[in-house]
């Protein structure tokens, strides 16, 4: 029994600490999953913040439309455009990070599937943002 304890818990005599392979892989996967969840939470928080900001901007736009202040309206639309571009860049960065994660780490099938689904979701979000951006540009041009 003491031999097991010494083999599994105590550091070896040569000073190198060895984690058993299975435990190491599980630990790595757990850390990866935690990082992914943290990233997702951060992204959701950011999206919520941006949604609130967009709502505020739209309310301001409605108010300005009622007041017929065209210059301020254009300024706010340009601000909205900048905000959308920033979000687009952030999503692209996150997408690149996920793709890098996908390429560098050997993942089990379930985690791989989850990562691919997340990437697809991000791509969908990116396309929706691009559509919104194009609509905004068309509105600005008219």
UniProtKB/TrEMBL annotation:
Subcellular location: Membrane
Keyword check for Transmembrane: yes
Topology term for the membrane: Multi-pass membrane protein
Domain ABC transmembrane type-1: 66-142
Keyword field: Membrane, Transmembrane, Transmembrane helix
Transmembrane in keyword set: yes
Gene Ontology CC: membrane
Residues that span the membrane, as ranges: 25-47, 53-75, 82-105, 111-140
Chief place of localization: membrane
Gene Ontology terms describing biological process: transmembrane transport
Protein's UniProt name: ABC transmembrane type-1 domain-containing protein
Species: Dreissena polymorpha (Zebra mussel)
